[in-house]
Design brief:
The complex is a heterodimer of chains A (about 190) and B (about 325). With about 190 residues, chain A is α+β, with helices and mostly antiparallel strands. Chain A contains eight helices and four strands. Chain A has two domains: about 60 residues; about 110 residues, H-NOX domain (Alpha-Beta Complex), CATH 3.90.1520.10. Helix content of chain A is about 50%, strand content about 15%. Chain A is globular. Chain B is rod-shaped. Chain B has a six-stranded antiparallel sheet, sandwiched between helices. A five-stranded mixed sheet of chain B has the order 8-9-7-12-13, sandwiched between helices. Chain B folds into three domains: about 120 residues, Haem NO binding associated domain (Beta-Lactamase, 2-Layer Sandwich); about 35 residues; about 150 residues, Reverse transcriptase/Diguanylate cyclase domain (Alpha-Beta Plaits). Chain B starts with a helix and ends with a helix. Classes of the chains: A alpha+beta (about 190), B alpha+beta (about 325). Chains A and B meet through helix 5 and helix 7 of A and helix 5 and helix 6 of B.
Chain lengths: ~190, ~325
């Protein structure tokens, strides 16, 4: 797994639950040096056992941890979340544009970090206000991270949405309730 | 004017940074982004709003509108630092001018507070801004990693026990070796050796020659010592040897041979470097090693005595004489 992903998990746990929780999770997953380098690559099983031990330490399911990880990428404290939400805002003028652009997300991310290969995402418009989002193979639990990201991005755009896992189907259903629920966060092309 | 209103709407949509000019070079209509950057519906001659940087010498608007060109370079009068690119397409009764921010796009976004809505979806400007921002972040991460590697290297170097130039032990390495010998029970000889005339090699032939001499001496020291002997370079041209289980007589003979080997001229890039070596030494039992500082002090006095008696020789310290 790319070091950036592991660094994101580290930042999420440290910022949300504190260094002590992070040390406990690392100890349980046997993470060397209890930290990650953003530009190195690590074995996939290490990331999986890290997620599992985070869930155990936090007494939550791995799915819930991954969803919170996703939303912390966007709305977490610190410069890192500012950077991700700005980069994602470039992909669409509105939340619906952003949903359509999810198909391009792996390519968009590879433009920024060529060796970071994300699973494919597919978006299907079922009604003008109802979308079905599914993910390609590769990363178990990836759709939960996407769930968290979508929830946080809807907030960014000021849109009220319902996001649910659909029984018996492998994807997420995104229902747009109100496109102008709040003003959302201002976005200018100007770099901060 | 020959541009009809449906065509204007098409241009507004596809090329929001355009202006329609009449035969006099007056603006008759403009796209929404151009309207935004000039601050209101632009009127009058185009050259009242923009300075034409290229092609040079073209000041007559009537000639300009008849020039079909892809190579216009203009600057808004209000933002003279921006260099905008332009394409001019003459038509019946005027021309269409389409603009782009070119390489000034970052400054333009700043100056005019442009948003995604100011660029058509097919325009790659927004993607370019994304790339610039992503690149800046990646560069920051890379610089951060490089800095940390550098500081790790410095820490590793300062913790090293080896002299980088000669591969002998350095002062820290020597300290560790001394501590180990203090723990043991074997008698041991301490030799302090300085090179003679080393400074003049450095001064006349340069530091590269000096380094070559030091490497050569280090190789001789390795040749004239045994596997378990401790050989260290403690800065400059000062060498320290710790030789366990050796008699004063053996050591004396060995130093004679070493000093004579060091005194042979060394070739460096066609020049001969002539140096020598002076040494002071002591042979002590394990207990006397405990006060290593004092041992160094009296051995250093012997080294001084060797230098005083004409160099290229060695002298035993006071403590060695009683053995």
């Amino acid at each position: 797994m790319h070091g950036l992903i592991n660094c994101a998990i580290e930042r999420f746990v440290r910022n949300t639950y504190g260094d002590q929780t992070w040390r406990m999770a690392c100890a349980a997953a046997a993470v060397p040096e209890q930290k990650f380098e953003p530009l190195l690559t690590y074995e996939d099983p290490l990331t999986q056992s890290l997620i599992a031990s985070c869930a155990e330490v936090l007494r939550r399911t791995p799915d819930e941890v991954l969803e919170d990880l996703g939303s912390s990428l966007i709305s977490g404290a610190g410069d890192a979340a500012v950077a991700t939400r700005r980069l994602l805002r470039f992909s669409g003028r509105s939340f619906v544009d952003f949903l359509y652009a999810l198909d391009d997300l792996p390519d968009r991310i590879a433009l920024a970090v060529p060796d970071l290969k994300l699973p494919e995402l597919h978006v299907e418009e079922q009604r003008p206000d109802l979308f079905y989002v599914s993910a390609g193979e590769g990363w178990p639990g990836y759709l939960h991270v996407v769930h968290g990201v979508l929830r946080a991005m809807a907030d960014e755009y000021g849109v009220l949405v319902l996001i649910d896992l659909v029984d018996g189907k492998p994807g997420l259903e995104v229902q747009v309730i109100d496109m102008a629920f709040t003003a959302g966060r201002a976005f200018t092309l100007r770099a901060g | 004017m020959t541009i009809s209103s449906p065509q204007t709407s098409l241009l507004d949509h596809l090329c929001p940074l355009h202006a329609v000019l009449d035969a006099e070079g007056q603006i008759t209509s403009s796209g929404p982004t151009l309207t935004k950057i000039v601050g209101g519906d632009p009127q009058g001659p185009i050259l009242d709003l923009f300075d034409l940087r290229r092609p040079t010498g073209l000041t007559d608007p009537q000639t300009l509108v008849k020039t079909r060109t892809d190579r216009l370079l203009l600057s808004p009068k209000t933002q003279p630092d921006l260099k905008m690119k332009g394409v001019l397409h003459p038509m019946q009764g005027g021309a269409v001018l389409n603009l782009s921010f070119g390489l000034s796009v970052r400054e333009a976004v700043q100056a005019y507070d442009l948003t995604q809505h100011d660029f058509p979806e097919t325009d790659l400007t927004v993607e370019m801004l994304y790339m610039i921002e992503a690149n800046t972040l990646a560069m920051t991460a890379a610089i951060d990693v490089t800095r940390r590697l550098q500081s790790a290297r410095q820490r590793a170097e300062s913790a090293s026990h080896t002299d980088q130039l000669t591969g002998l032990l350095n002062r820290r390495g020597l300290e560790v070796a001394v501590d180990a010998l203090k723990e043991g029970t074997v008698p041991c000889a301490l030799v302090l050796m300085d090179l003679d005339h080393f400074k003049s090699v450095n001064d006349t032939l340069g530091h590269a020659a000096g380094d070559r001499v030091l490497e050569h001496v280090a190789n001789l020291l390795r040749r004239y010592t045994r596997q378990n002997d401790v050989v260290a370079r403690c800065g400059g041209d000062e060498f320290t040897l710790l030789i366990p289980e050796i008699t004063a007589q053996d050591l004396s003979q060995r130093l004679d041979a070493l000093i004579s080997a060091v005194s042979a001229p060394i070739e460096f890039e066609g020049q001969m470097c002539r140096i020598g070596a002076s040494a002071g030494w002591s042979v002590v039992d394990a207990a006397e090693l405990k006060d290593f500082e004092n041992l160094v002090k009296i051995t250093d006095e012997a080294l001084y005595a060797a230098k005083q008696s004409g160099r290229s020789c060695h002298r035993p310290a006071q403590v060695a004489q009683k053995l």
